[in-house]
Amino acid sequence: MPQPCIVIASFQPLPGKTHELIALIESVIPQVHQEEGCELYALHQEVSGKLVMIEKWTTQAHWHVHNNAPSVAAIQAGLPGLIEGEIVVQEMYGHEVGDPTKDRL
Fold this sequence. Notes:
By secondary structure, the chain is α+β, with helices and mostly antiparallel strands.
């Protein structure tokens, strides 16, 4: 059975642009939640102000389909002038150790 694909995407807002960046990302979240294979798509904010999207996809293939979805295109189109640097994306897979309800997302 394929392992779920966990993705962490970090965005550093430009000064004064945090609320606009949050609004942009929040505008597509309901759409992403309806995408096949989306198990988690949740926006968080670090104390430093960086925005972090934590994602869980049923398979890597589902995440790859998401990367070509209109929701991602909408985010990418709205990013110029809102973020500093590049989006940092980490793709990872859990290790099954111990209690299966506590050892992975």
